[in-house]
Design brief:
single chain, alpha+beta, OB fold (Dihydrolipoamide Acetyltransferase, E2P), DNA polymerase, domain 1, 5-stranded antiparallel β-sheet, 5 strands, 45% helix, globular
Length: 191
Amino acid sequence: MFAYLEGVLSFKSASLVYLDVHGVGYELNITLQTYDRIQSLDRCRLYTHLQVREDAWVLFGFAEEEERSTFRQLLNINGVGAVTARIILSSLSPDELERAINSEDSRTLEKVKGIGAKTAQRIILELKGKLIRKSNSASQPLKHNTAQEDALIALVNLGINRGMAESAIKKSGDISGFTVEEIIKQALRAL
């Protein structure tokens, strides 16, 4: 529903912020990773995830799109809810989480409050190879090309991991004269 909110931070704590967006105050639950990035700021942009429950609508805010993406991938795992996903991302940076998953280091995950051996193994099983951080990518970022950027957004909206989508677009070769649709087709073939 909300992709991101940008405004003035009227209240900050390690787990919660109030973001004033043109006179409307939004309460956002945040991770410690996000708090570290925004604690010295007066204004910021937070990428959001809205959780609709029977008893409440809860808004989560993340300083980076990659953290939100990781949060959403954690939510897809049986036994991992929003509170647990937020605790995981407060305890481990997305890069540390990726390393633990790819090296099948369940002990690191078990150190997170509320994560037992079975849940740690389930997280590793379901996310291994799916968490690809931008910072770990050896290739250069996409050139500023509206068609490429639009194609990337479309691929991510189709449910493809952002890192994998960027990689697929780069593998497509010289696509400088292609339309958005042609770039998407080439990228899907490269996946």
